[in-house]
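## retry 2 of 3
previous attempt timed out at serialization; input unchanged, resubmitting
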Amino acid sequence: MTNRLTSGAICLATLAVWLCAGCDVKVGDNGVSFDVTNGRANDEWKRTYTLVKGGRLEIVSGGGPIHVTPSAGQTVEIRITREAHESTDEKAKQALTDETISEEAAPDRVKVQTTRPDGRNSASFGRRRISTEYFVTIPAGLNVSITGENADVSLENVGGQFTLRNTNGGFNARGLKGSITATTVNGSINLEMEELAGDLTATTVNGPVRIALPNAVNATVEARTVNGVVMVDPDLSIAGGERERLHVSGRLGKGGPAITLNTTNGPVNIFKAGSRGRGRRGGSEPVVVERQLQER
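## retry succeeded, writing output
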């Protein structure tokens, strides 16, 4: 009897593996369900634009990551890759059709937007699954606006004026030149500035804020958290203002552009570019702020 039960269990397990070769397995309140996704479709959308210096580039993502890197010339190139998974190839192709890509182009302004059915901008809509990814190259000196939902945004070695908004996703930048405003609800903000040529504002509700500043930077700082701690690299000397566990303000160098950092749930870490920081997660320990208080 035992052998029969064991053999039956092995057969069921083998059948489950065979059935799930092309499906997703989900475990919910009602047990295990099998979601078959044998169908697949993908496509690529690509455009090149010429914008005047100081022109505006606007990206609105219906969901999915966005990568911004420098252009080899003076043009803007936008490439969008998409892949849909459905029960059949035909339904997967229809999912791609249902997500629209629109563009507006003028000499001083370009806007590209992906929109999913009924405005449901998420990684999946209904029972359909679709992944969308932006690859954007830009010349220096543009006014860049990126709005995303469920879309992590990365920027590398680019310069300009950047306005970034997100709902569920973070921002990661390095080698950034210019000014930046980054706002998200659920996500981390990690910005490494090579050159600060304007104000820097970073705001999140749930997530850490981590800012790397260049050597000999001149700026005014206002950093605050509600549930966390403000950590300052000991190599950065902030004069005047206030230095407390939840709030740090003051002047870097001669003062200048405003650096405003806020989070509700998470730490704020301000450190020197090229340094990995000290303490947990690459940041300074809270004792750094307390020591600065004692020294002053």
